[in-house]
Amino acid sequence: MQTGTLYDFLMPEERTYEDVEKRLGNVAGVFGVTRMHLTMERGRDSERRVKLLKLHEPPFTRPFAAPTRREIETFAGVPLGHDVTGQLAGVPTFDKASMLVAGMTQRGKTTLVNGLITCLLIAYGEFELYLLDGKFCGLTKFEKIAARYESSDDPAVFEDMVDELNSRSDGRYRKITEAIRNRQPAPTFKPVILVVDEAADFFAHDESKEGKEQARRIAEKTRSLVSKSLESGIGTVLMTQRPSTNAIPVMVRDQFLYRLCLYVASSGTAKVALGDTYFDTIAPINPALLDPDIKGQAVLFANGRSTLIRGFNFEDQFIWSVVDEIYGRRQKELQEAAEEAPKTPLHQAINLMRNKGVDFMLTSELAPMLGITEDDATERGKKLSALLGVPAGRGSQGRGYKLADLTAAARSST
C-alpha cells in the first residue's frame, strides 16, 4: 500500500484476531515503531485472519484533502475525519447519540466540530441546531441557520437552553408513550443537536452557596438531557479544553455514547475524556502520544472501538455555501407554508417584523398589532405568548420576540 505495508495472515489454531488486537502495543515494539503506526482489522472469512497495516510514516504526516459533498453524502453515517489511511471515519448516527470532545487548548477542537456540523448539514439536511458559543466566535459560521444561537459564558444561558431542550424531550417522550398505549407506530421527530463550546465553564462555580447550587442543578439537568437522547432524538455535543477530573461532572460524562479526545498531556487526563476503564478496552490508543503539532488529531472511541482520526478542515467558502443553501431552502419552505396555511398569529407576527425590517420587537409593540389591548404588562405578555406559542425573550430594551425565534417555531410546526 502507498501509506504503509499490509500484513495479511492467519493466526495459529485456537488463536483469533483478538489475540493480536489486545497486544498491538507489543507488536509495534517488535516492528520498532509506536502504537500509532499500526492499525488492524479482522478478516471477514475467519476469526483467525488478521490484516495489520504498518504505516511508513507517523500518522497524518501528510494531510488528506477535505471530502467532497458526494463523499459525505454516500458515507454510511456521519464522517468526522480521515483515518490513518485516508479513508473517511465517523459514527453511524447522530440523531440518537451524544458526544464529548476534549483536548488541550489550540489543538483543533473547534475546527473539528465545525467540520462535524458541516457534515451533519450535508448528511441530514434537515435538523434543528442549537449552538452555545463559549468562545464567542467559534461557531458563528452557523448562526444563520441555528434554531437558537447564544454567544455567552454565563451558566444561566446554558441552563436556559438545557431547560428548553429538556422540555422538548419530555414532550417527545409523552408522544412516544401515548403511541405505545394506543398501539400506534412510534412517532418520528426531526433531529435536534445541541453543540456547546467551552462546556466546562458552565459547570464551574465561585464557591458560594448559590454558585454551588446552580452548578449542581445544571449538572443534573444536563445529565438528564444527554441520557434521554436515544429515544428523544435530541443529541448533545460538549467540547472542553479542560478535561480535568472535575471540569465536567462524572454524572454527565458517563452518559455520552461517543468520546473524542485530542492531544492531552497524560493518560490520566485521557481517562477523563474517554472513560475511566478506557485503557482496559480492546486496542486502546493513548491520546497523550499524539503529535501535539498536528492539529485536529483525535482518538474516536465509539461502540467499544478506538480509531485514530484527523478532523476535516474545510475552507470557509465551502462551509458558507452549505449554510447558504440550507438557509435558502428553509426560507423557501417557510414562504410556501405561509402561503398555503391559514394566517396564524405566528405568521402574522413574522410578516409584521419582516415588513418593518426588524429582528426584534418588544411585547408592548407587537401585542396591539395582533389585537391584544391589555393594559397590564404581565397579562399582556402572557396573552401574547399563548397566542404565538413562543415564550418571550429579553433584549437590550426589554422583553420581546426575536424574528429568528418566531421563524424557528414556524418551521418546527410545519
TrEMBL record:
Query: FtsK domain spans which residues?
Result: 81-271
Molecular function as annotated in GO: ATP binding; DNA binding
Record-annotated residues binding ATP? 103-110
Q: Any stretches that span the bilayer, and where are they?
A: none
InterPro entries, per this entry?
Answer: FtsK/SpoIIIE/SftA (IPR050206), FtsK_dom (IPR002543), P-loop_NTPase (IPR027417)
Name the domain of life this protein comes from.
Bacteria
Please give the name of this protein.
Answer: FtsK domain-containing protein
Species assigned in the record: Streptomyces phaeoluteigriseus
Taxonomy of origin reads: Bacteria, Bacillati, Actinomycetota, Actinomycetes, Kitasatosporales
